[in-house]
Structure formats: C-alpha cells, structure tokens
Amino acid sequence: MSQKKRRSAGSKTEISPGKWRLMVSAGHDPLTGKRRRISKVVEGTDREAELMLSAMLAKTGRTVSTSALTLWSYVDQMYLPAMEPPVLRRRTVDGYREKLERHVMPYPVARIRMDRLDSYAMVSWMRGLAEAVPNKQTRLHAYRALSAALGRAVEWGILEANVLTRAVKAPVPDEYEPVILTEDQANDYLDSFTGHVLEPLVVLAIAGGFRPSELYGLEWPDVDFENGLVTVSRGLHERSGRVWTEDTKSRASRRVVTLPRWAIEALRPHRGVGPIRGQLKPTQVAYRYKRHVVDAELPWCPIQNLRHTSATIAMEGGADAGDVAPRFGHTSRTMLDRRYAKRRVARDQGVADVIERFRRTS
Questions:
Q1: Are residues 109 and 251 in the same domain?
Q2: Three-class SS of 7-35
Q3: Is residue 191 located within the same domain as residue 155?
Q4: Residue 37: CA atoms inside 13 Å, Cβ hemisphere, count?
Q5: Sheet architecture: strand order including 19-28
Q6: 8 Å CB contact between 308 and 277
Q7: Angle at which helices 305-316 and 183-192 pack, to 10 degrees?
Q8: What is the pTM of this model?
Q9: What are the backbone angles phi and psi of residue 347, rounded to the nearest 5°?
Q10: Domain containing 308: what range?
C-alpha cells in the first residue's frame, strides 16, 4: 500500500518499496488559472526522497523542510545539482564542488542540520580550516564557495540569513606576486619556442595577453592575418579528464585583439584550419610547455603568467592601464592598477631621481 506524505506545496508518495513519486506545486498558469504541478518518480530511501523533494521545492521557490537536511546533504544533493549549467558555468560548478568537498565535507559543520547552523559552527569551521590550511588564498576560495551555497539557501527560504558572512569575515590573503618575465626573458622564450609545436600559443600569449582557456579555445579562422586581428569568443577547459568549450567568462572577455606584426609573421608558418593547439588537450599543452622550458633552461614562468608578462611589457612601455584593460578582457583598469602597482612604484623612483637633481643645494 502506498504511503503519502503531504505538505502545503509538495507531496511524497511511496508507490513501491524504495520507489517514490514526488509532486510539487508550481503556482498557477497565468492564462488558464489552473494549478501547475511538477511530478517526478525517484528511487531511494525515505530520507533521500525527502531531500530530492526539498530540491524540487527550492527550484520552484517553495518552502523547504529542514528536518532531515544537514549542511552537506543540502550542498551535495540540492545546491550543486541546482547550479548545473546553464545556471552557472561548468568550470564554476566543478570548482565549487572541489572546494566544498575538500574544505567543508570533512569538518563537523557538514553534519549539522541546516536549521541548527549558527555563528559558533561557522567560527569553529574557520578555526579548524585555518589550522589545516595555511594558505590564506585557499581559505578564501573555500569561504566564498560556502558563502555562495548559504546565500542561495537564504534565497530558497531554507535559512533566514547567511550565518557565515554574519559570523566570520572573509580571509584576507597575502598580496599575489605573479612570476613575470622581463623583456629580455620574454624574447628568450619566443626565440626558444621558434619552430616548436607550441610556438603559436606562446606567441599569442605574449603578444595578445590571452587567458590559457582562451588560448586553448582559439582556432585558426579566429586569426585575421590580413588585418592582424584575433577574435576571442570561447574558452576550452579541462577537469578530471573531461574537456569542454564554453563562451568566454564575461562580455568584456569577448573581444578583438590587435597583434603586433612580428606575431602575425611568427604565426604564418603554422597556419591551419582547426584549433591552434592542434589536437592537444590543455593538460598535454601544459606538460609539453613545462618540459621545453626546463630542457631549454629558461627561467620558469607558468603559461598563464605569460599574460601578466604581456600586460607588464605594455604598461612599462608607456601604455595606459585604461587602454590595456579592454585588451586583456577586463571591464576596468582596477585589476591592472592593483596587480602592477609595485612595478609602477619602482618606475616612479626614476622620476623622483630626476626631480631630486632639480633642487639647489647650499
């Protein structure tokens, strides 16, 4: 005999052992006025069916019962599944999952019921994380991932407030100092990779300042050899062996970049019809890149930092940050101002030295 449990906006009926029919109300049709219902048949325990019903209720904006909902069951069975594309980008969802599995699931806070989460639980979690994870940047990523999950729980009516942001301030990481090549070192890289299968990617990274995912997503038709332009419209990503293509991360990232003449000439011998990376996956590109840098005894610079090198060369050569920002897919010059402030301070010392010589001495 089937067992049916009702609530104001949804119901759960066991139609056979371990098999459940879930039904939630999705409001009324604006034209006909008839009630709309969403039905789904699932398999699992009573508790698992309850969680799946809660997820369906959350998606329709209905009240969710928290009687069987721990923080981790909410994250794993409600929040992350609901954030799957197209809600969030695949890379973002995978990144959240990795951070939450590594830095939240192993801690006692993961087993606390959602309706019992409080400031003490959040403070205790952050204290334990600080003891286990010295890197402040990593702790900040974990904080942001959990904060995003709890923020969504507030929107869905599961929590009244984001207990994490109310109880604990976000960790402040040490200032990031990227490895950046000098102009001579960048020239050494370009010379060393001449004729190499990765030469087009290295040339584009230094000449155009593209993100690694943008480099991997570029195809030869994206390069306008006649006018010296490259159109950026997609990125290629890889995680756990899966490779996928997505649109660029923001509207500002979709752009057309002008290449210097030397870059166009370096690309011509490699010109083809498919992906500029050939058939190599991103991990294979990274491996071959590192192997060549080591074998050639070049100073180490991660491939993603060739982008920073490009921006630094441009700005130290006199380009204004406001002009450089759109080229690198930024909406404003703020990121460039923050990242390259120290280098401009060093250049400013030269200006101070000139002014120093102006003052008469008695």
A1: no
A2: CCCEEEEEEECCEEEEEEEEEECCCCCCE
A3: no
A4: 12
A5: 3-6, 10-16, 19-28, 35-43
A6: no
A7: 130
A8: 0.68
A9: -65, -35
A10: 183-346
What tokens does 116 get? Answer: 């019992």
Residues 76 and 19 placed together within one structural domain of the fold: no
Sort strands 242-247 and 229-232 into parallel, antiparallel or unpaired.
unpaired
DSSP calls for 334-345 = HHHHHHTHHHHH
Residues 340 and 202 in one domain: yes
Which residue from 158, 190, 162 is spatially nearest to 63, judged by alpha carbons? 158
Q: Per-residue pLDDT for the chain (362 aa), expressed as one digit of tens each?
A: 455 444 445 788 889 888 888 888 776 667 777 777 788 888 888 777 777 777 777 666 555 556 668 999 899 888 898 888 888 888 899 999 999 999 999 999 999 999 899 999 999 999 999 999 999 999 999 999 999 999 999 988 788 999 999 999 999 888 777 789 999 999 999 999 999 999 999 999 999 999 999 999 999 999 999 999 999 999 999 988 889 998 887 777 889 999 999 999 999 999 988 999 999 999 999 999 999 999 999 999 999 999 999 988 888 888 888 888 888 888 777 666 666 544 554 555 555 565 556 555 55
How far apart CA 99 and CA 337 sit, in angstroms, is 29
- State the angle between helix axes of 136-155 and 119-132 in degrees (0 to 180), rounded to the nearest 10: 150
Q: What is the DSSP letter of 79?
A: I
* Cβ atoms within 10 Å of 242's Cβ, excluding its own: 9
